[in-house]
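Is this the right way to post structure tokens for a design question? Let me know if I should format differently. Anyway, here goes:
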């Protein structure tokens, strides 16, 4: 059984920073990602990291957000810098087994396990 527990959300001013954490337990898959969902909008992929450390980012966060994973702690992180009001959303971590993760990482339907979400509000 896989459990994902996010933490670290909160409020920040535009231009500020927030770091999200996602503690994972259970089976380890080859792809871990962060998604976000704003009210009235679809869930969208933010960033992903594969088991070899390679990463992918949505264009809207490139250069501002960094995804990383501490394998010893089995914890996923999302460092969010230069925050903008449009980054306001409920952020979820997710994991799954992918054959072609680089092509599918932003497809929410491909993920098997999800965390409960943590709110980030930027004003």
């Amino acid at each position: 059984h896989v459990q994902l527990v996010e933490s670290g959300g909160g409020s920040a001013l535009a231009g500020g920073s927030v770091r999200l954490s996602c503690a994972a337990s259970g089976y380890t898959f080859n792809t871990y990602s962060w998604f976000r969902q704003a009210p009235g909008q679809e869930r969208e992929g933010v960033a992903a990291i594969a088991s070899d450390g390679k990463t992918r980012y949505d264009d809207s966060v490139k250069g501002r957000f960094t995804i990383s994973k501490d394998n010893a702690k089995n914890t996923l992180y999302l460092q969010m810098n230069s925050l903008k009001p449009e980054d306001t959303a409920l952020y979820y971590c997710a994991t799954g087994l992918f054959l072609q993760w680089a092509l599918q990482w932003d497809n929410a339907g491909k993920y098997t396990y999800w965390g409960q979400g943590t709110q980030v509000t930027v004003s």
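Format looks fine. Someone answered above. Worth noting: The chain has a mean pLDDT of 95. The CA atoms of residues 95 and 118 lie 16 Å apart.
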